[in-house]
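Render FHA domain-containing protein in 3D.
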Amino acid sequence: MTVSFDKPTVFDSPAFIELGNKGEILRLYLEKDQHKLGRDPEWADLKVPVDWGLVSRRQAIFVREGNLYRIFDGDGTKSSTHGIFVNGTRVSASSGYLLTSGAQLEIAKSSDHILLTYSNAVISKPPENIVLPSNRRLVLKGIKEFPIKLGRAPNSDVYSSMQLDAPTVSRLHAKIYTNGNGAYGSLVDVNTLIPANTPTEIIKTSFVYSATWKNLGLNWGVLIIHISVCIGVSLWLQKRKDIV
C-alpha cells in the first residue's frame, strides 16, 4: 500500500501568542480584529500576570490584517517602557510589525527578556475542485492480525489497516482490538462443540467515514464510527443425534 498522506495534521484553530518568562509559558488566543496586551486588567483583553514586571501595563496592540496580525508597541499613541524587539530592532508604535507564523519577538532588551512567539494555524478555504473521500469499507471477517490501524498514514506494510484521506485525521488515528466472540467467557473457534441451548453472540462492525462542508470551509475530521451490534442471536438446537 502506498502512503501518500504525508502532510502534517491540520487543525482549524485561532492564531495565538505565547509568552515565555523564565520557564513559564502563557498562551493567549487572537480571535478579534484588535487585541490589547498588558498588565492593566482594565485596558488589556490579553492579560498578563501583574508580577511579570518586564511587561508594561499597556505593552502592545494587535490588529488583524487578512489572516495575519500586525503588532504595535505601546497603547497606539505612546510606546511601552521596555519595548518590543525583532532581531534587535525595536517595533514602532506607528507602523508596527506584520507577524508571520513562527515569528519570535523580545519584550525588553535584556538578558531576562520575555520571549513572544506568534503562531497562526488558521486554514484558508480549500480549492473548489477538491475531491471528497468516498465511503470505505473494512471487512473484519477473516482478519487475524490485530490491532487494526486507522489513520491518514498507518503502517503501509500491514494489511490490516485503512487509510483515511483527510487533513484532520492523524497519521495513526485509532486502533481496533478484538475482544473475541465467546461462550461463557471462553473464546469460540472452529473446533469448539457448542452444546444445545447455548446462546451465541454474533457481532458485526462497520465503519463509515464522511467529510462535509460547513460555513464555506471544509469541516474535515468527521470520523464517524458506526458500530452496529447484533446481539441475541441464540442457537436453539434440536435434540442431537450422534456427533461424528
